């Protein structure tokens, strides 16, 4: 325990020396958010998404408690101040370890701590967390209570509507009720069951049927809780329909593959009429200083241009010339030059200005 405390203290000193705020801003309305996605929603992806939507909530990839308490804290928690509002998703099932990790997240400047109770992968199950935690609602409640005692930012839970053959509404209702009794006020609900054996994570996102009515029913039964729907949403018309029943919608892979879907979220869902929506060219131009700073910070070691540009391949989805845009951003010879201006050059190949 003393060694863990030393690591945390050292990490806190590092974040203070980097001028990272130790207290986050109090944000409102999780009307729209982008889901935590392993290997995708890293800090570069989130910075790119923030250029498209200023108000939607962004979530980190899941970070395990072990990675924070025994690993490189800065590598896992470092982010750019422009990403706010941004939430840290934790993976774990030990209340004390989660409390320490949540405290680190708050010190590092995150606006929310989210507990993963929805990932069905076997690797996560071996660590006794993720979707399998839904079978132990009292343990989840203990974890939430420990984290809430450790921080003064929101602690939220992301979960499924059931696991394996547990498809009754009563199962998820009792889970939410038990965890709510521990003080959790926000539940992000993936509207599919998680099949813990026999399906890959990808299949778990596609094969179990979507049952949105279960999420709607949760909101009816728990009107004072913030209920956010996740799973299978790809169009603004679907978002509009869901928002008639729940408090918010979380987008997953559609936001990644077709990020321009989010271009009018600020005006449409947050009432932000302060300026004209950015064009694609303006979004890419806004990323250039960030990319140059990141490449310079790493001094050409470890970080390559494609580590950032890979998140932008879907920006021109549906436009004439989109294929050429993707080809240029995937061209090894062009990327090897390390020139962020490649983004603007690639966009310029489209038949009309974007």
TrEMBL record:
Task: Kindly state which keywords UniProt assigns to this record, in alphabetical order.
Answer: Flavoprotein, FMN, NADP, Oxidoreductase, RNA-binding, tRNA processing, tRNA-binding
Superkingdom per UniProt: Bacteria
Binding residues for FMN: 36-38, 89, 158, 190, 230-232, 252-253
Any coiled-coil regions, as ranges? none
For this protein, the record's InterPro entries field holds: Aldolase_TIM, DUS-like_FMN-bd, DUS_fam, DusA, tRNA_hU_synthase_CS
Stretches assigned to the DUS-like FMN-binding domain: 34-337
Q: Which Pfam families match?
A: Dus (PF01207)
User: Which PROSITE patterns does UniProt cross-reference here?
Assistant: UPF0034 (PS01136)
Q: What is its EC number?
A: 1.3.1.91
Q: Does the keyword DNA damage apply?
A: no
Q: Which cofactor is recorded for it?
A: FMN
Catalytic activity as recorded in UniProt:
5,6-dihydrouridine(20) in tRNA + NADP(+) = uridine(20) in tRNA + NADPH + H(+); 5,6-dihydrouridine(20a) in tRNA + NAD(+) = uridine(20a) in tRNA + NADH + H(+); 5,6-dihydrouridine(20) in tRNA + NAD(+) = uridine(20) in tRNA + NADH + H(+); 5,6-dihydrouridine(20a) in tRNA + NADP(+) = uridine(20a) in tRNA + NADPH + H(+)
- Keyword DNA damage present in the record's keywords: the answer is no
Q: Where is this site: Interacts with tRNA?
A: 116, 202, 205, 323, 326
Residue numbers annotated as active site: 119 (proton donor)
Role of this protein: Catalyzes the synthesis of 5,6-dihydrouridine (D), a modified base found in the D-loop of most tRNAs, via the reduction of the C5-C6 double bond in target uridines. Specifically modifies U20 and U20a in tRNAs.
Q: HAMAP family attached here?
A: DusA_subfam (MF_02041)
Family (UniProt): Belongs to the Dus family. DusA subfamily.
- Protein name, please? tRNA-dihydrouridine(20/20a) synthase
């Amino acid at each position: 325990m003393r060694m863990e405390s030393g690591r945390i203290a050292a990490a806190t000193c590092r974040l203070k020396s980097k001028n990272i705020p130790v207290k986050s801003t109090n944000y409102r309305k999780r009307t729209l958010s982008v889901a935590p996605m392993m290997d995708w929603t890293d800090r570069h992806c989130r910075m790119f998404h923030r250029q498209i939507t200023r108000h939607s909530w962004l979530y980190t990839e899941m970070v395990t408690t072990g990675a924070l308490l025994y690993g490189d804290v800065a590598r896992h928690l470092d982010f750019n101040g422009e990403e706010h509002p941004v939430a840290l998703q934790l993976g774990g099932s030990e209340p004390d370890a989660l409390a320490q990790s949540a405290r680190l997240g708050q010190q590092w400047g995150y606006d929310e701590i989210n507990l993963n109770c929805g990932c069905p992968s076997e690797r996560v199950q071996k660590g006794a967390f993720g979707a399998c935690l839904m079978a132990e609602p009292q343990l989840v409640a203990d974890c939430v209570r420990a984290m809430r005692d450790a921080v003064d930012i929101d602690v939220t839970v992301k979960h499924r509507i059931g696991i394996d053959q547990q498809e009754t509404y009563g199962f998820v209702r009792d889970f939410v009720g038990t965890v709510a009794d521990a003080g959790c006020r926000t539940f992000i609900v993936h509207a599919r069951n998680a099949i813990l054996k026999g399906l890959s994570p990808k299949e778990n996102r596609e094969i179990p049927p979507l049952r949105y009515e279960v999420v709607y029913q949760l909101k009816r039964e728990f009107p004072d809780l913030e209920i956010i729907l996740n799973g299978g949403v790809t169009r603004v018309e679907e978002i509009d329909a869901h928002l008639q029943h729940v408090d918010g919608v979380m987008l997953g892979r559609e936001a990644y593959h077709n990020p321009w879907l989010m271009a009018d979220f600020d005006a449409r869902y947050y009432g932000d009429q302060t300026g004209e929506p950015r064009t694609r060219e303006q979004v890419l131009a806004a990323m250039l200083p960030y990319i140059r700073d990141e490449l310079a910070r790493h001094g050409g070691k470890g970080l390559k241009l494609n580590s950032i540009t890979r998140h932008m391949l879907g920006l021109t989805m549906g436009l004439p010339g989109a294929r050429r845009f993707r080809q240029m951003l995937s061209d090894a010879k062009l990327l090897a030059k390390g020139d962020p201006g490649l983004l603007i050059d690639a966009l310029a190949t489209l038949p009309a200005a974007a």
